[in-house]
Amino acid sequence: MDPALTPEQEAVRRTLRELLAKHCGPDEVRAAAAGPLGYDAELWHRLADQLGLPGLALPAEYGGVGLGPVELALACEESGRALLPSPLLASSVLAATAVRTVGTEQQRTDLLPALADGARTSALVTAAAPALALGLVPAGAGDGLPDGTTAGGGRAGGVQARPAPEGDGWLLYGEAGQVLDGARADLLVVAAHTGGFPRSRTVLFLVEAGSPGLTRTRLAAMDDTRTLARVELRDTPAVPLGDPERDAGPALARTGRYAALAVAAEAVGAAEQCLTRTVEYVQVRKQFGRAVGSFQAVQHRLADVYVAVQTARSAVHYAAWTLERDESENEGDGEGEAGASATAVPLALAHALESLRTAAADAVQLHGGIAITWEHDAQLYFKRAAADELLFGPPHLLRARAAERANLFGPTPVPARIPVRTPVRQEA
What we know:
By secondary structure, the chain is an alpha+beta fold. Helices cover about 50% and strands about 15% of the residues. It contains 12 helices and 9 strands. Strands 1, 2, 3, 4, 5, 6 and 7 form a 7-stranded mixed beta sheet that branches. The radius of gyration is 23 Å and the shape is globular. About 0% of the residues have low confidence.
């Protein structure tokens, strides 16, 4: 791995940072998050036209820019620095990766170009929380569901799929909460359970906005820059994405690696911005006749945050490199889960989430009373840190999943059955 960035990669980072500095300041972020879409549509189309951001990591044959995970991580780091409200994670990473991995060639050709140029947006709908549905944490960590049934919700509950009575198409019934951008997306990629007990499997389906029986409700979220929705389906017509006879679990795990990389890179950018603004503040804020930043205890704390941010960035860059290498070695294979990225990506995400939590918490404390006010920007980063851990963590479960994939502790031992002894009745 060469840690140095290429001129093309530096251009991606520099251009996006300059554009967001002009059009995505704190006031613009708040206004966009409070709007009906939850993001600035004009800015999103500007990013698509000038940088090709929605299709940055999509193949050129499907209308994308044709770059890889490293460039995606650099772009997400800049979007995280500005807390950019956009469909980047939900549409360009989650849904687009699922379509590219599971869809047929015709479906890719029909769907991906519109997602790549930002003309349409999409969202991935899973009954379980994203961390569990995408295989980022051990199975059963949240819902107690076995592997292969977490995304669709299992044989009861969640979203169920069945063939239409007329034999034409499929019908979906159920609901899912915590769907990123689910209330505003033009296209939903829904993970549903089908097959009953003998052929239980998770299948991805395409549902267009405005389909009969589809209800979407935007929810109040801790992090205003990421909109969440509850999606309800009542015998809603749907089209299978790819082969409905194949289980989509491995493909969702592959999608999860891209999502984890994007969230980790965003967390690194947000953590660095927290650190930068805190360092600036402690140099001008005076206490006891001297700048707060001159106190050794404050310097030590900020030095620890700096080390955490830089090590998290290194972990994210390594994870992006391993993911790019694994993708090149398994081109077009949505089933593969082996490779260094299967452990490097969740570990990078765990480290990045912890660095953001530390940076945001120290920013709030070192800014003093103003940081806990609604008007100050520190609370936005603190909420992002907490919300990301709820959706894609927590760190200790991400590390447990990485250890499980690496077989670090060997197979889980099956507890021995304890014999039950029948008490012998004593005769008087």
